[in-house]
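G., the chain you wanted modeled:
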Amino acid sequence: MIKGGNAFVPAVPLRVAVRNGLDVAVLLLTDGGRVRGDADIVFHGAPAHPSNAVRLTGAENGTMWLDIGLPLVEEEIVRVLLVGSVENGALRDVIGTSVEAFAPDGTSVARYDVNDAGAETAMVLAELYRRAGGWKFRAVGQGYVNGLVGLVTDHGVDVAQEGQAPPQAAPYQPPAGAPAPIPYQPPAAAPVAAPPVYQPPAPGVPFQPPAPAPAAAPPVYQPPAPGVPFQPPAPGVPFQPPAPVAAPPVYQPPAPGPAPAPVPGVPFQAPAPVVPAAPAPVAAGMEEWSFGAVFEPYTQTGRDNDVITVEGLPPGPVVVDLAIRGDGYTGLWPLTRFNKEGDTLVNSTEEDFRGRVLTQVPGNGRLRLQLKAEGPWQLQVLPLAAATRLTEQQLECRGPDVLLHTAGTADLAIHYRGDDNLIVNLFELAGHDDPTCLPTDDNVVNEIGKRRETVPLPEGPVVVQLEMADGPWRAQLKHLEPHSGSSTGDGLANVTDIRTAQAGRAWWSRR
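Predicted structure as tokens:
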């Protein structure tokens, strides 16, 4: 499994191996992304959860073993984080870090090999989380440079300051009326019937071999109905795909106005791009943009995995606008001139993914993108000037995005309501005179889980990139100052009306 990937696992007691020589902890989280108290942390000092759902069972040859009884996890717990840390050095110094989950019969049901660790000293390696009445395993790989303290603090753990006694955790009390936890007992081996005893024939009676018993047709495994937890088929039972059904009606886009929720079972049809009404007038100094070329947006639709090629683009940074209808893994990479994957643009397990990302058109004007998706999709390549402008009005969006700050100094207030990473980068264009590339970015936010952030912005023009934001968020400018004048340098492309470029934004634009 690659980073960000996920898959259903059977809702049975799992045996989990964490390799290689890491200190292991498990955090049991509610739907708010936080523990209920110190009792929801399982580590070497508290090796078993009070519910008996999670237990550290020992280490051998650098591997830490855990028992996670998914049927015993309390209803209030929706996520189980598997955490690894080191006391000395960094995680990149650990060779062979991996997490692997086994069913009771020893079958491996999920595995994630961590191969991109850096200077972090603690990491959320993987998680088990509830979905559609069952459980899924997700390969996370989210590191923390500030170590285990920073990781657990982000999930609601109060850590004692140096020189202070650690807080005493209140003893865990199960909810009123809840039955006592039942320790997990491995299933007893099924009794094997004794084979029949051979009886020799009577003297003088010729041997007659017994007639072969008619072979009973093996039972056929039927996949569960939607929403029913996954149960693996019995050994030897062949998989029978469901019978084909009549094609469902095709989704038709609604008239302008609030978009209704998609109808279950109706395949997605991307509506035609919408040309929005002219935006309201903006303050002086906020409508001008003079970086990068403007071109007609390129649009392509498709389904599932594909390679997209766009010819004749001006070299330089562009915005890729992607919308997918589906609940599988979404990945997007630019392809190098050697037809190899470049830096990851999208790595998401978000259902119905939508977002905007930055990429670079090579000098030959030929952009090639590799897309991994499950379901119908629409992709647009837009000029940088088509990115959404930041103003003092609240912008409510979802997913990664590319924003433009064109006014004077300001504070950018962000309210993030997702459960995964929030990564924000700034590209300050003042004095940068090469429109074929962006300057080095300044990473200003790299956190995980729901949070509020306020980021000081320099005078525009500034590109604000939400590199990762798998979830809803809001943003707006505060303490906005007037622009002092042009500061973009000389020799840039002549793009003076940002509103013209923004008229070609994607059909699901959220302005």
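The first helix runs from residue 147 to 154.

Shout if anything looks off.
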